[in-house]
Amino acid sequence: MNTITVNGTALRYDDHGPADGLPVLLVHGHPFNRSMWRPQVEALTRAGHRAVTPDLRGYGESEVVPGTTAFAEFADDLAALLDHLGIDRAVIGGVSMGGQITMEFQRTHPGRVRALILCDTSPAPELEAGKEARRAMADRLLAEGMAGYADEVIDKMIAPYNVTAQPETAAHVLGMMRTTDPRGAAAALRGRAERPSYLGTLAATDVPVLVVVGADDTYTTVADTQTWTPVLPQADVIVIEGAGHLPNLEQPETVNTALLHFLHTEVL
């Protein structure tokens, strides 16, 4: 584990694998932390790649910044981390909110992106009702904490059948959610409410893209994903059976196989 202060905020991150390996920076979703990428870090480093996994500001062991955290701030933090590590261009990937931050990074720092990995995410902006819901949830988390919310959404974060069939996975996901600082989660939710559309960003993207979605994801469904992936005619779109919103944890071997195949055939 390492610590760096970027843009006035202390971030914790892990940097595994050979320094000269293909750099892959993975961005966790909400309300999680960098530990969600452990299966991918192990697979990447075994294959000789370099895996960088930060805790976003307000999450995990990084410094909590109350208020509102704009997605551009998250993206700038990632760029500063790459600068610190001496990495000019990297494969950037993320799940859910992390996928949206990945698209923000592509929008604001396109020259730093070697390829994109978008997992169970959406490029669409928030509609007014969605903005109100994000803000209301931010207020609720500040008032009540994370435990009740975590219990409510566990069978949406992972498929309901995996809550019972994969108790260790469920416990890991619940643990990440319950230990997230509500101030950091609320700040991100407020910023997420104001995110732009990334459809134009994706349409202009000229780097390889891997899109992954859990077959039973109810947040970002396969049908929803199929509405926007046509703007990326060269993208690899992989549906992961036996998974909900977090296929990298629910079906890690399948996701790792798809990830390594993508890196070895489309990026290297």
Automatic annotation (TrEMBL):
Domain AB hydrolase-1, first and last residues per copy: 23-251
Keyword Hydrolase: yes
Keyword Hydrolase attached: yes
MF GO annotations: hydrolase activity
Pfam families the UniProt entry points to: Abhydrolase_1
Keyword set, alphabetical order: Hydrolase
Name of the protein: Alpha/beta fold hydrolase
